User: Fold these one by one.
Assistant:
Number 1:
Amino acid sequence: MRWKTTDYTGWGRALTASGDIARPERRTALEAILKDGLVPAIGMRRSYGDAALNDGGRVIDMTRLDRMLSFDTTTGILDVEAGARIGEIAAAFAPRGWLPAVMPGTGFATVGGCIAQDVHGKNHHKAGSFCEHVVSLTLLTGTGPVEVSPEKTPDLFRATAGGLGQTGVIVSARLKLLAAKGDVMVVTERRIADWDEFLVRLDASDATYTVGWIDATATGANLGRGILEEGETGSGLITQRGKYRKVPFNAPHFALSAPIVKAFNSAYYRRVPETGRTVVRPISDFFFPLDKIHDWNKLYGKAGFHQFQCVVPLGAAPALREMLEEIAGSGLASPLAVLKRMGPGRAGYLSFPMEGYTLAVDFPNRAAARDLAKRLEGRTAAAGGRIYFAKDSLAEGTDLGAMYPDLPDWQAEVAKLDPEARLATDLTRRLSLRSAQ
């Protein structure tokens, strides 16, 4: 297998790595690589920080192992290689009345990446996390292939689900797809006046898919205002689909200055009529709205950006409000801010979700933003919440034992499978995840 030395980044582009990358096209080529020892596997690098980086070492790019192997129309079980993208699965199966049970905010995420992060979607309050719909998976370990399932190998499954790729290389998986009414989304949009109304609406929502865009620049009586979207699958004709655009160059520093972001957010808030509205959208426009703008991460400039995402228990909502107040008062927030209600569903020792509220906000990579994110991490820990490894690039890891009480169980399982830490990445080293806390 040919190795190519290159520089690469995560989606946030604030953290970088340099090393050898191989891109096998067949499982036999992958197995040949691993005969010399385990190597971390990566996908489309849609994690924002350093989860897919191994600076100075080697990684295996799994994106050519992207075949859909078989589908059972009776059970809805899809057998698929780990490099397949979630958006491609949705596009292939939505017209046939099926969707991936859980989809993150980008269709470019691979199946292997979704398992390694145990991702959640706009239906977490109903469907739980991604790996709760994984029937089984094939894992290449230092001793060969292992079939992993919640029933037959529960400890290994829980260490692999959300386990950041540290138990082995995920080769393929059997996914239980969700029955869908069709290949479009019927979406109800309504303005939300403030933080208190947002929580009430989120708690009361019975829609299958629910997500809130929040104006993270609004302060005072408008703190927490935004737009609530509630969606259901449907069938019908979409006469006009959104055009794809590309950001051709890194935006200048002033493009995301506080006045410009505030003006944009105000206009975006008012795009929905006061009385609300119901619209029909293509599946991809609802689930992956930013995918239509290729290389949208360049909008943050050459220095890149960081995202802070946390979840706090239901009873800690006042603490989350205080975090939003600090974010809004900082003048650092971008237009990309999301608020969701989460259920209890999680499949792995290091799975992010807990029942509560999750807030995600993007910040340009500036010193003040980095300091703010670290303060928000401390507030999250004090509130009994946790941060999301798929988005993190700044945490120091001092509170991870409290955030993730199952961490010792994960460490013990990982140590059995990879005692030499060959699968370690920049993220696991930065947070000392594989060391005793």
Number 2:
Amino acid sequence: MLPSFAIAAAVLLATSLLPTRAGDELLPHAAPADVGMSADRLAVIDRVVQRAIDAGGFPGAAVVVGRHGAIVWERGYGALGGGSSAAVDPERTLFDLASLTKVVATSAAAMVLVDEGRLGLDDPVGRYLPEFRAGAKGRVTIRHLLRHRSGLPAGRTLASSAAESRRLVLGTALEAAPGERYEYSDLGPIVLGFVIERITGEPLDRFVQHAVYARLGMQSTTFRPARALAPRIAATEPGVPRGEVHDRASHALGGVAGHAGLFGTAGDLAIFAQFMLDRGSRHGVRLVRDSTVAAFTRRGAEDRQALGWETCAGGGSCGQRLSRTAFGHTGFTGTSLWVDPERDLFVIVLTNWIAGRPGGGVAPVAVLHDVRADVADLAALAVVDGAPAPMPDRMRSDARIGW
């Protein structure tokens, strides 16, 4: 009999090479009118995204909007880039998800372990990682890591080997007392990834694959994509092979890290978003309790940060129209995922912004900011059951300020 780790590895390889499911097998499609949405308002998304592509904002994009358990808008725009003219397909094209890894992998794995009683949010990190007990680090809790209040710096330069990079992360000195202030830090989720590995006895990618993705039917979400998937992967940046993570710290850690490294499709993220809207269950299978999902997605008293997730305070990638209870995250490569429980709505925008313009260079980040915010606003504005808000005369992307 094969050892369990070998079986898990075989499952991971097999699922990463499977053809993408038909889009309606796990998450059905519905006409906008059937879920209280306006098709005409959603159609403005085409103009917003195409305007950005025409301006050289990014080679390609995938957008998915869902409501009441169904996908109502699913489009691919532009091409994979990096020399490939293949069209983006929201069900098949994998993007480097960057910091969406923090919520779709690390926070998701933490939810499972918290729900099972194997991880305590207020436990000191040193309970699981003796290497993380010196001085004030002994007071850093799992909750601190998730809320970016550990006192760790935003990041640091790592080494050429994964083992030495791990040692450097765990040896990083705090820059503030635990809980004292908010500092968005990649190091916090990296350390949490180490905690998850210590508890489960297996790498983060392997655990989250069988504990979350396989159970949800997410067939195209993976760290370190197999070479056979390269024709389906959107270019991330010039000179970087398809499927190689853009983030330097994740690369130094071997491509699997708690803060970045995950690749996936918009279609798979739609399944994950629906799982979050369904408060921890999918198709009658409960992965975590609804109270656990609520705890992870509730904003803290001091700021808009939840546990791993951010909440929408208006502005940024969530636009101005999503509810205050909406939660989501973005990724540096040009990705975003927002979930609005009050409207039973989710919005996914994946782009390869740093892949560069056709003539070279990266477009101003204002292009990306405007598109992500406009798409989120349009999804909210398209909800017309009740008293629909009036449509604005123009969107941010029409003004092209800073483009």
Number 3:
Amino acid sequence: MSARAEDVPDLVIRSRRAVLPGKEGPAAVAVRDGKIVGMHAHDARLNAAEQVDLGDVALLPGLVDTHVHVNEPGRTHWEGFASATRAAAAGGVTTIVDMPLNSLPPTVNAEALAVKRSAADGRCAVDVAFWGGAIPGNVADLRALHEAGVRGFKCFLSPSGVEEFPPLDTDGLRAAMVEIASFDGLLVVHAEDPALLADPVGPRYPEFLDSRPGEAERRAVERVAALAAETGVRAHILHVSSALCLEPLARARRQGIRLTAETCPHYLTLVAEEVPEGATQFKCCPPIRAAANRDELWRGLADGVLGCVVSDHSPSTPDLKVPDFAAAWGGISSLQLGLTAVWTEAARRGYGLGDVVRWMATSPAELAGLRGKGAIVEGADADLVAFDADAVHTVDVARLHHRNPVTPYHGRTLTGMVRTTWLRGRAVGKDFGGVLL
């Protein structure tokens, strides 16, 4: 008996290297109306309007990047929804969550969220969700932001770099946690203790690195853990760069405190010893640290103390990256390159594509409560990536979709290349088919 027309898939994608939950191997994935409707044997005979056979090219779920500074509205000359989401798609990222600062106005109340949504509407090549912000004086705005759909709230414990998004002191942090816990929301924290930070004493990278010691991160993580235990809030530590954070994070988990953490591609792939003189495209806060520290971060991932790897894409115009580490803007531009950079190092260290998918797709989706994202399973959105894991390429900043040609990966040889990205079953091209989540 022939299948009913409404049951025939729109698309079937076959790969001998499909990365599914808990396994990797041959499979055929059937898609209809933007959803995954069936998981089949690789050689299953299936009718479909379109058939794609990837051969040995891997099939991954679309990545979920929960740490992206899009900067629109207000600083769209730094980045914007059109350029950022095109870069995301080119890098295999099908969902981003936009940070609340560096845009004007910052997303610290429901009215500002509406302004940002309006700026993003119709300009997104991939799906976009939003974080709200927790700053001094806006506790009364947090519930309305939550009800308007933000995925959680970002705060700083040290200066953010922009005056319109000031940090929280201990009392402010506790007040925000109490309010966010009252509706079981999520607080995501830039954790550096300002008392241990100093102004760089010179223009060189070692001087900048010394000004932001790992102990500042550790001390801040311990404060967040203590207050999370006190208030019962669900909290998450952003962009862990120092391995000194691993012990207090592991201890908090053993104690049942609802505290998770992430790190970023640049902390896993770059090292302080190799930062060239004046190369401020490497500057970020917290900073890239030594090679031995990098090894410890990889162990933190393997142990599950660090659960997510996300970009912290924080771009700027080239003029802000002056060749002086004391004066340059701090932020790494890497949204398009995260998957291939992490895979290059992960493969060298013996990890598999399943590990990378867990760190860069499944766990970030779970963190932000993005159902139907981050895994190739029946019923999920058909957000998929054809990833040639063996392809070797040299990064040319001029070929990236980022608005400004600044990245520390320029000239680096990386392994792995995104061949095609599908958003809800449609290959992402020049159209803006993303939705606002």
